Amino acid sequence: MPYTNVFLQIKENLQIAYRQAIDCDARLDELRKAGHGKFVAIFTEDQGFTESSNRFLPYVQELVAEFDAMQNSTHVAPETLEVFVKKLATLLQTLQVFKLSK
Question: Domain of life, per the record (predicted)?
Answer without folding.
Answer: Bacteria
